[in-house]
Amino acid sequence: MSLASGDLTTLAAVKEYISNPPSDKVISALIGRISVQIRSILNRNLLVPVTYTQQFSGQGTRQLVLPEWPLLGLSSLKVSGIVVPIAPQINDPNPPSVPYGYRFQPWNGVPPGQPAVLDLIGLSFCRGFQNVVATYSAGYAVTGEAQTIPATPFQVTPNTPFGSWATDQGVSFADTGVSLVAISSGTPTTGQYLPPAPGLGSPRLTYTFAAADTLRTVLLSYGFIPGDLEQVAIELISERAAYRTRVGLRSQSLAGQETISYDISGIPAYACEMLRAYESVLPPAIGAPV
Predict the structure, then answer these.
(1) What's the pLDDT band for 204 if we cut at 50, 70, 90?
(2) CB neighbours of 216 closer than 8 A, spacing ≥ 6?
(3) Helix (H, G, I), strand (E, B) or coil at 57
(4) What is the pLDDT, as a whole number, of residue 208?
(5) Which residues of 143-173 are buried (b: 16+ CB within 10 A; e: fewer)?
(6) How sure is the predictor about 271, in pLDDT bands with cuts at 50, 70 and 90?
(7) 195 compared with 247, residue with greater pLDDT
(8) CB-based contacts of 40: which residues, under 8 Å, 6+ apart?
(9) Neighbouring residues of 110: CB distance < 8 A, sequence distance ≥ 6
(10) How far, in Å, CA of 156 to CA of 209, rounded?
C-alpha cells in the first residue's frame, strides 16, 4: 500500500512518533487497516487526486452536488446524452455563442473543503434514471507551486503547506509551460524529474532534476494528505500498537498504589472531533475511478 492507494500516513512517520515501536511488518499492517477504517467513517474514497466518471439520476433541478471532493476540475458533463459546456460568466467581455452551460465555485485550496455544487444556466438536470454523467477530478492537491532548481544538488523540497506529500500530479517549466517527464528511478536528463517517494523504507522527500535544468523555475503539482487526518491515523495506530500488550484490559492496579484505566472506545472523542469536518453525508454515486 501507499499514500496513492489509500494510506493516510507512512511507516517513517509512525516510527518517528511511537516510542519503542513494534516491527515494520506490524506497523505497515496497522497503517493499511486504520486508513481503511478512517475512510469508511468519513464515507470517502481516496483523498488524493483521482479522476472519476460517475452517473446520477436527474431530479429536474438546476443543481447537482458531486460526492467526491474537493473538486479540482470538471472535464465532461452530459445530461441525457447532451454535452453541457461551461456557462458564460457574468460580465464576460467575450461570452461564448452558446448561452447555457454549467458553473461551479472553485475550491480555495484550503482543507477540509466541501462538496462542489454544479449549477446549470439555461438548463436543468432533467428527470431520468442515470441520465447524468460527469467526469471530474477530485482530491486534495497543491497546484502550480513555484520552485527554482538550485545549482546543486538539483533538488527541491515541496512546501506541503497543509499536509504530507502523497502523489505526483506533474511538473512544468514556469516560463514555457512545457511539462517535464517523470521517471521512476535513475538520474534525470534534461526535461525529466524524479518525484518524491515517501512510502519507501528510506523515504525520498524531494524532487530531483537534471543538472542542465538548474536555475530554471518549475511549477509543482501534487496531492497531499491533510495534516489533521494524518495525525488521527498516527494516533489510532499508536493506540492499536500499544493495545497489543494489554488486550482486553479495562484497567490495572500498580502495586496497590495507583490504578490505570484505558479508553476502550472504538474511536476516541478527540479523533471524532477532528474527523467531523471531513465527513461526507452524500450517498455514493454509480461509477468508479478511471
Answers:
(1) confident
(2) 148, 149, 173, 174, 175
(3) coil
(4) 97
(5) eebebebeeeebbbebebebbbbbbbbbbeb
(6) confident
(7) 195
(8) none
(9) 162
(10) 8
pLDDT at 146: 98
Interatomic CA distance for residues 277 and 113, integer angstroms: 9
Domain definitions of the chain by residue range: 3-46+141-228, 50-138
3-state secondary structure 4-48: HHCCCCCHHHHHHHCCCCCCHHHHHHHHHHHHHHHHHHHCCCCCC
Q: What is the spatial distance between Cα 286 and Cα 278, in angstroms, rounded to a whole number?
A: 21
DSSP run (H or E) holding 235: helix 227-243
Q: Look at residue 250 and tell me whether its pLDDT is greater than 60.
A: no
Average pLDDT of the chain, as a whole number: 88
| pLDDT at 3 (0 to 100) | 85
Torsion of CA 150, 225, 46, 273, to 10 degrees: -170
* Cell numbers describing residue 144: 502550480
| 3-state SS track over 165-217 | EEEEEEEEECCCCCECEECCCCCCCCCEEECCECCCCCCECCEEECHHHCCCE
**Pick from 166, 71, 187, 164: which is nearest to 119 by CA?**
71
- Residue with more model confidence, 153 or 242: 153
pLDDT digits (tens, 9 = 90+) for 33-42: 999 999 999 9
Q: How far is CA 209 from the centre of its chain?
A: 25
How many residues does the structure list for the chain?
290
- Rounded Cα distance between 111 and 127, Å, is 34
Helices 24-42 and 227-243, interaxial angle, to 10°? 130
- Residue 214 in grid coordinates: 538548474
